[in-house]
UniProtKB/TrEMBL annotation, chain A:
Belongs to the succinate dehydrogenase/fumarate reductase iron-sulfur protein family. Its cofactor is [3Fe-4S] cluster; [2Fe-2S] cluster. One of its GO terms (molecular function) is electron transfer activity. InterPro entries: 2Fe-2S_ferredoxin-like_sf, 2Fe2S_fd_BS, 4Fe4S_Fe-S-bd, Beta-grasp_dom_sf, Helical_ferredxn, SDH/FRD_Iron-Sulfur, Succ_DH/fum_Rdtase_N. Residues 150-180 form the 4Fe-4S ferredoxin-type domain. Coiled coil: none annotated. This is Succinate dehydrogenase/fumarate reductase iron-sulfur subunit. It holds the Pfam family Fer4_8.
Automatic annotation (TrEMBL), chain B:
One of its GO terms (cellular component) is plasma membrane. This is succinate dehydrogenase. Residues 503-635 form the Fumarate reductase/succinate dehydrogenase flavoprotein-like C-terminal domain. Keywords: Cell membrane, Electron transport, FAD, Flavoprotein, Membrane, Oxidoreductase, Transport. One of its GO terms (biological process) is anaerobic respiration. InterPro entries: FAD-dep_OxRdtase_2_FAD-bd (IPR003953), FAD/NAD-bd_sf (IPR036188), Fum_R/Succ_DH_flav-like_C_sf (IPR037099), Fum_Rdtase/Succ_DH_flav-like_C (IPR015939), SdhA/FrdA/AprA (IPR030664), Succ_DH/Fum_Rdt_flav_su (IPR011280), Succ_DH/fumarate_Rdtase_cat_sf (IPR027477).
Length: 247, 636
């Protein structure tokens, strides 16, 4: 299998980038998309060129570190799939594949396809936790949580923090990411004491980081590998309103 | 040096309490003056960093990933064990302790293993409080399931993403303490060496991966929480960035390395499909709860799975191990699969897999129940293979997974270098020669949250009187120079082969000779081959770009250089241990029906290797079993 990879190359955060095309031969359908990039990098090394910098770690769709724009879509042509779980069988021999980094003001480019997503960590820092010290926990079954509530919390908690929601959103909004964490914790009894504070502070940080506003296009939930539903954003907004009124 | 495991006095169930009652305390004002470096931000590292910060210490936490949330604890699927006995099925701390000790084939310390079981129940309380959405019954109480090597239901889980949920809890607590300005988090920073001053760990040298700057960090104690090293096989279930560099550098600076060859090969990963493959995806062992493993009775059977009638299927685990069946421990299940595949019964395009079949379970429990239990795993399987496992059996195969081996630590989790601790998978402590499923999240968490924060003060109180650690000390300069020289040497080679090419070569040798089945001739040959790979690496590797920039190729090369050296020690260790125990199976030592043959008379010890400038020297920590009689491990 042979494809042309048209890849965004940018030396550093401050330099100007541009697309470069690489004819990449010797691929197979069973290869993952990232393995194809590995393969390209080996060819580049032997040609004495710098490798393409891209993110990855677990390569099984759970760590959230990988993520690039492929032919105009976050994580490539399929819904709900991380870049590492995309395989070359999704492309045809002779295809040109356009590969770009996430584009968002809050995710500055570090190099080539790598961006800085630490803005997400700083949103978590503003209350994406339950304030409880190690050693203070009551007996686990003393807190009863119905299966429905627990399952719903888990649906939101499944977010892997990859940033595809931001990258695919025309406003570069982080509403899906932020709402997932807020709803995970605020729907559980353990998260309730800090519920209002959490929603106010996390949403404030989201704005400070330069993410855009949500206009409910629904683009985010189409790409989300963890299938976080857009209804989380509505729920977050309701929680926000309640917190504003009550605090 | 004589190894002192520092096991506390008293009866087994009183040891940890006795230890806590007698260890030194540090008052809150003094804790503020002390700083601790934590390398790694997985369950062990993040748990330790957050808890140490809560206690008042000043903490710096490092990880190579772009965020602490990526650490590979995230990928553990199936669950976490705890002796809660919620199922009323006869579980207890004692039984969990015994299962773990037996699962490890009696090659771990009784006191450590007991403590693991003892602290398991409060850990579940802890995680529930932190907001982990564990699976629950309709009435609101927690659910359990079974796991390999055990006959009770003591595994807690959050769908097939238990590791992710526990890590998110640890990561959130870490960020809670970052907000409190008690932890300084440094992602994209990789530890390249350890600084030892007057025999004590006093800091580390790191590379800022974003621009290649080499930096010094000083501390009163250094905690390594850097995970497993099974990427030495190249193809493994681990994340691509997982590496053994931090513990290897610590080993070269004087920390003993225990049981390096004890590596768990997981029975249920997806089979390899080509040379270009970069990793083997794990399918949770929890699938063995309801899935049945089989191969065709006929050799080289070309029929599709659904066309093979029931009486021509060999459910070999149920046949060989009727008491445990598909829930036999991992080492046994992996070896049994290898045996069938080698005998010509393997299935799949490369004949390198076995079937994991859910047909019976779906008929019995209904599709909805199976979907509720394993939905995300079936979805993942489909994403990777394109196959719907509700209709056709999954194809699975053994893959390198967990490192039981690691830095030797005493009861306080301190290595042989004073002030250097190793927690989580990077140490050798509780699992012996084989780890039971759902015990790894447990050990990482307990080490980080509960044990280390209680033991580190015992050392740190002696450091209060010492001079504050300082990066201007000449030793920092010397170690930094070593690091820079090492990198410069690598960049200057400019050879003709890629890093991945060398990694493939190393992986092949290790998988062939030092994985599920080992023998003297093979290991001796492997050592020579790896030494050749090392020589060739240092004359032929090619790394492009420069060291003074973000350079993923250089990162890989530095990790591989350490893997190559570690691989030699793994083979040396496997060669020296002339017995079969747990995951370590020496072909020369087996019973007539192919089971592992332990030799308690000669090998009832933990092998702790001293680096000794590459002429590895063996030290033995004798294992004494006072409460349990080591038996022949049988799952029949």
């Amino acid at each position: 299998m042979k494809v042309t990879c048209k890849i965004w190359r940018q030396e550093s955060a401050d330099s100007k980038g541009n697309f470069k095309s690489y004819e990449t031969d010797g691929l197979t359908e069973d290869m993952s998309f990232l393995e194809a990039l590995d393969h390209l990098n080996e060819i580049l090394v032997l040609k004495n060129e710098r490798v393409v910098a891209f993110e990855y770690d677990c390569r099984e769709g759970i760590c959230g570190q990988c993520g690039v724009f492929i032919n105009g879509r976050a994580h490539g042509p399929h819904d709900h799939v991380t870049t590492c779980q995309l395989h070359m069988r999704s492309f045809k021999d002779g295809d040109t594949i356009v590969i770009e980094p996430w584009r968002a003001n809050a995710f500055p480019i570090l190099k080539d396809l790598m961006v800085d997503r630490s803005a997400f960590d700083r949103i978590i820092e503003q209350g994406g936790f339950i304030t409880a010290k190690t050693g203070t926990a009551p007996e686990a079954n003393a807190i009863l949580i119905s299966k429905e509530v627990s399952d719903k919390s888990m649906d939101a908690a499944a977010c892997i923090g990859c940033g595809a929601c931001v990258a695919t959103c025309k406003n570069a909004s982080a509403a899906l990411f932020t709402s997932a964490k807020i709803n995970h914790l605020n729907s559980l009894p353990q998260g309730r004491p800090e519920a209002h504070k959490r929603v106010l502070e996390m949403t404030q940080q989201m704005q400070l980081e330069g993410f855009g506003s949500c206009t409910y296009t629904g683009a985010c939930e189409v790409e989300c590998p963890a299938e976080i539903s857009i209804s989380n954003i509505a729920e977050m907004n309701a929680r926000y309103l309640k917190a504003k009124l009550l605090s | 040096m004589k190894l002192n495991s520092k096991i506390p006095e008293g009866k087994l169930e009183e040891k940890w309490r006795n230890y806590q009652a007698n260890s030194h305390l540090i008052n809150p004002t003094n804790k503020k003056k002390l700083n601790v470096i934590v390398v790694g931000s997985g369950l062990a590292g993040a748990g330790a960093a957050a808890t140490l910060a809560e206690l008042g210490y000043d903490v710096q936490c490092f990880c190579y990933q772009d965020s602490a949330r990526r650490a590979h604890s995230v990928a553990a699927q199936g669950g976490i064990n705890a002796a809660k006995n919620y199922q009323h099925d006869g579980d207890s701390v004692w039984r969990m302790f015994y299962d773990t000790l037996k699962g490890g084939d009696f090659r771990s310390r009784e006191a450590n293993t007991y403590r693991l079981a003892e602290l398991s129940a409060p850990l579940i309380d802890h995680f529930v409080q932190q907001g982990v959405p564990f699976a629950r019954e309709y009435g609101g109480v927690l659910v359990n399931r079974s796991f390999g090597g055990v006959q009770v239901q003591r595994t807690f889980y959050a769908r097939g993403q238990t590791g992710q949920q526990l890590l998110m809890a640890a990561y959130s607590q870490l960020y809670k303490m970052i907000r409190a300005k008690k932890v300084d988090m440094l992602p994209r920073h990789e530890m390249l060496d350890l600084v030892v001053i007057n025999g004590k760990a006093k800091g580390i040298i790191v590379r800022d991966l974003t621009d290649g700057t080499i930096k010094r960090y000083a501390a009163d104690a250094v905690v390594l929480a850097t995970g497993g090293y099974s990427r030495v096989f190249r193809l493994s279930t681990l994340a691509i960035g997982c590496n053994g560099s931090a513990i290897w550098k610590a080993h070269k600076r004087g920390a003993y390395f225990a049981a390096p060859s004890f590596t768990q090969i997981h029975p249920t990963a997806l089979p390899q499909s080509s040379d270009a493959q970069s990793k083997l995806t794990l399918m949770s062992e929890s699938l063995r709860n309801d899935g049945r493993i089989w191969v065709p009775t006929k050799k080289d059977d070309a029929r599709k799975a659904n066309e093979i009638p029931e009486d021509e299927r060999d459910y070999y685990l149920e046949r060989r191990y009727p008491a445990f069946g598909n829930l036999a421990p991992r080492d046994i299940a992996s070896r049994a699969a290898k045996e069938r595949i080698d005998a010509g019964h393997g299935v799949g395009p490369l004949k390198n897999g076995v079937y994991l079949d859910f047909k019976n379970a779906i008929d019995r429990l209904g599709l909805d129940t199976i979907e509720d239990r394993y939905g995300n795993l079936f979805k993942m399987y489909r994403k990777i293979t394109g196959i719907n496992a509700y209709e056709k059996p999954m194809l699975i195969s053994p893959a390198a997974h967990f490192s039981m081996g690691g830095l030797w630590v005493d009861y306080e989790l301190m290595t042989t270098i004073p002030g250097l601790y190793a927690i989580g998978e990077c140490n050798y402590s509780d699992h012996g020669a084989n780890r039971l499923g759902a015990n790894s999240l447990l050990q990482a968490s307990i080490d980080g949250y509960f044990i280390l924060p209680n033991t580190i003060n015992n050392y740190l109180q002696t450091e209060l009187a010492e001079e504050r650690p300082n990066v201007d000390h000449p030793e920092f300069e010397r170690v930094e120079d070593d690091v820079k020289e090492h990198i410069a040497k690598m960049m200057a080679i400019n050879g003709s082969r890629t890093v991945d090419d060398f990694h493939r070569a190393l992986g092949k040798v290790m998988w062939q000779e030092c994985a599920m089945s080992r023998n003297r001739a093979g290991l001796e040959k492997a050592i020579i081959q790896i030494k050749n790979i090392k020589k060739e690496f240092w004359s032929e590797v090619k790394v492009t770009g420069s060291e003074a920039e973000l350079n993923p190729e250089l990162e890989k090369a530095l990790r591989l250089a350490d893997f190559i050296e570690l691989a030699i020690l793994m083979c040396v260790d496997a060669l020296q241990r002339e017995e079969s125990a747990g995951a370590h199976f020496r072909e020369e030592y087996q019973t007539k029906d192919g089971e592992a043959l332990r030799n308690d008379a000669d090998f009832m010890y933990v092998s702790a290797w001293e680096y000794n400038t590459g002429n590895f020297k063996l030290h033995k920590e004798e294992l004494k079993f006072e409460y349990v009689e080591p038996t022949v491990r049988s799952y029949k």
